[in-house]
Amino acid sequence: MSLDCENFFELEFYESFVIVTIYEGVFLTLEKAQIVREKIKAYYKSKDFVMITNRKFKHEVAKEVFLQGQPPNMKGLAIVSEEKTERDNAMIQQKLFDKSFAFFENLEEAKSWAEGYF
Q: pLDDT for 15-28, tens place per residue?
C-alpha cells in the first residue's frame, strides 16, 4: 500500500517494513516527523517493523527527530542513497539512533535486509 501524504512525504507499507520517501527540499522537523509516525502507527499499531528511508531526494532531518520518540515497535532503520554525502550524514545520524541501523546504496538490498530482519 502506498500513500502520498501531506505533500512532503510518501509511505509504502509492507508486512514487516515501511519505506519512507521525503520529498525534495523538505526540512524534516520534529512536527513533520510526528505526522509520519502517526501514519505508520495507524498501520502497524503495536506490530514490530523496520523503517527504510529512501533518500532519493535531497532533504534535511532535524537532529531532534532521532533524539525524541522513536516508536518502541520500530526495531531497525535502513537508509538508502547512492550519494556519498548522504552516507556521511547517515554515519552522524547513526550515533543518535540506539537500534539496529544500516546503510544501503539501493532499495532492493534494503528490502532484503528488512525482510530477513524478523
A: 999 999 999 889 98
